[in-house]
Specification:
With 113 residues, the chain is mostly beta strands. Helix content is 9%, strand content 46%. It has a domain at 11-80. The protein has one helix at 71-80, and strands at residues 4-9, 12-16, 26-33, 37-44, 52-56, 59-67, 84-89, 95-99. The longest helix is centred in the C-terminal third of the chain and has 10 residues, at 71-80.
């Protein structure tokens, strides 16, 4: 059995939470729909908790935590790049999203045709 979950994804959902007085609250999250799991990127203020997996409603949740100020970088990639891949190491609980190899100097030009 592989210790990695690597999968291309095409759907995501953004949650913007109401103001919280809690010092270590999740401010925003991005939920990525995978074939047999959900990747949940949580953007936190204050102390960043460790990443973890859990099983809810018969579906695995791969929870990744980042500083709240990183949200704009992630949403920019989600809006402007494709294809995108979700990566999660089940042993170390390290995860990220990534693009595929792209040509140098591609810029904002749409070369999908």
């Amino acid at each position: 059995m592989s210790n990695f979950h690597i999968e291309e994804f095409t759907k995501y959902k953004v949650f913007l939470y109401g103001f919280s007085e809690e010092q270590n609250a999740v401010e925003t999250s991005i939920h990525i729909k995978l074939s047999n799991a959900d990747g949940i990127l949580k953007f936190c203020k204050g102390k960043i908790p460790p990443n973890y997996t859990e099983e809810k409603t018969g579906r695995k949740k791969l929870n990744l935590h980042f500083r709240a100020d990183r949200y704009s970088s992630f949403i920019d990639i989600l809006r402007h790049e494709q294809p995108l891949f979700f990566y999660y190491n089940k042993d170390t609980h390290v995860g990220f999203i990534t693009t595929s190899d792209e040509p140098v100097g591609e810029g904002n030009t749409d070369r999908s045709n």
